[in-house]
Amino acid sequence: MSEVTGSATTPDAPAPVAAATDTAPRSDKMELLQQMPPGSVGIVYQARNPKLNRVVALRQMQVPDWLDDADDLIKRILAEARSANGLAHANIAQMLTGGYKGFTVFVSAEFVEGKYLREHVNSATPGLPEVMVLARQLCAATDYAHGKQVVHYALNFGNIKVLPDGTLKLLDVTTLMKVPGKFGGFPQLLVMILTGTVGIALGLFISAVVKTSEMATSLVPLILIPQILFSGLVGVPVGISRVAGVVMPATWSFDEMKRWSGLDVLRGKDENAEPAGKNEGRGLYKQIEHENDSNILDTQQRINEYKSDAEKRSSDFENDTEQYQKALLKGESPTKPTAPKPGPAPEVAKATKIPDDLSGFVDFLHPWGGHWTNLGVLLTMIFVFLGSTGIALRTQDIG
User: N or C: which end of the chain has fewer CB within 10 A?
Assistant: First the structure.
């Protein structure tokens, strides 16, 4: 847990919440000092523990109560916090405490004073020796975390700080999580090895068909850029992008990694991706849109019914009043009609919001993918590249 999450740019100055006085707002046993820049997960405050007189970073995350697995999500967030609490490293902000109240999760961590990495680089313009020192510290922190079987999936300039003495601190330790999926991530490791073998086979083929190493190096961007553009790394591929992605190893590797994660999807059948396993194939985004549309229609129907009922009672009152007046003219003693009181106004359902924590989702699954398809294509690519390399070398020998 840290001051910010997920920002790729230097955060703005924090907005003050209240002075550190007895009248400052409190969150249970924490005294909130100021709100930190917004991040991708929850709201972060600089807070003080009055009993210990210790300043901490307090993150508040709201778990939507409409989620079927809301309780499981809370347990998973706290489990990740416990995993992060076990990390003791000079370059990782220490996680302190965690808990929840209702559907709100609170976690606190060491508050790190210092500049964000982007701000530090822009202001100090460090030379190569300092860059190497910072890089070694970052590698040491991530290597230590990996040794504890946790990975940081939101590593960027917005969650790395540099202290005045040059010490680098890796923030957002609540976003450190165990590798999702079965068997502790072992299937994903095998997919990575298989993908690496495809890369080696492709490299051998390129080396066999070009004359110099300079030519081989110049081809690297031409090979890597299409992998990014057409393999689904930047969105669901459609049209020509989907067709071009068929020959990209990253397409099948990336899809297989996501399938083994066992996570739900953000995009489903309505967005040119493979249908989700629930919600009639809709991903999270379309499911939330569907629920909000249903709430709007339901609210409109109840408002129309309320309006119709009010108009009917008003009309009945007018008729009763007219009959009452006629009875009075006839000298009768009728009962005076009572004006109708408005009934309770129809309640408007709250809009369903996208959860703050999307770590339990992958973007989408490729509509042409599948476990056997993905692995089959990667294996085929290995044999094709190795076979093509042999043919190229044999051709050169004959020539």
Answer: C
* Strand order across the beta sheet in which 168-170 lies: 115-116, 160-162, 168-170
Asked if the structure places residue 327 within a domain, the reply is: no
Contact yes or no for 157/10 (Cβ under 8 A): yes
| CA gyration radius, the chain | 30
Q: Do 257 and 205 belong to one domain? A: yes
- Judge whether 196 and 381 are in contact, CB under 8 Å: no
- Using the 8-state DSSP alphabet, how is residue 239 labeled? T
Same domain for 129 and 187: no
- Pairwise CA distance, residues 306 & 301, whole Å: 9
What's the CA gap between 92 and 1, in Å, rounded? 10
Q: Specify the pairing of strand 95-101 against strand 104-110.
A: antiparallel
Question: At a CB cut-off of 8 Å and minimum separation 6, what does 259 contact?
Answer: 365, 369, 370, 371, 374
Helix (H, G, I), strand (E, B) or coil at 171: coil
The model carries a pTM of 0.58
Cβ contacts of residue 307 below 8 Å, gap of 6+? none
Strand partners, 105: 61, 100
In this structure, which amino acid lies at residue 271?
E
- Rounded to whole angstroms, the Cα distance separating 379 from 213 reads 27
Cβ–Cβ under 8 Å, residues 266 and 285 = yes
Phi, psi of 189 (to 5 degrees): -60, -45
The domain in which residue 92 lies consists of 1-178
What is the SS3 assignment for 16? Answer: strand
Q: Tens of pLDDT along 341-383?
A: 888 888 888 888 888 777 778 889 999 999 999 999 999 999 9
Instruction: Give the end of a domain, one of 130, 147, 178.
Output: 178
Which has the closest alpha carbon to 80: 10, 17, 152, 137?
152
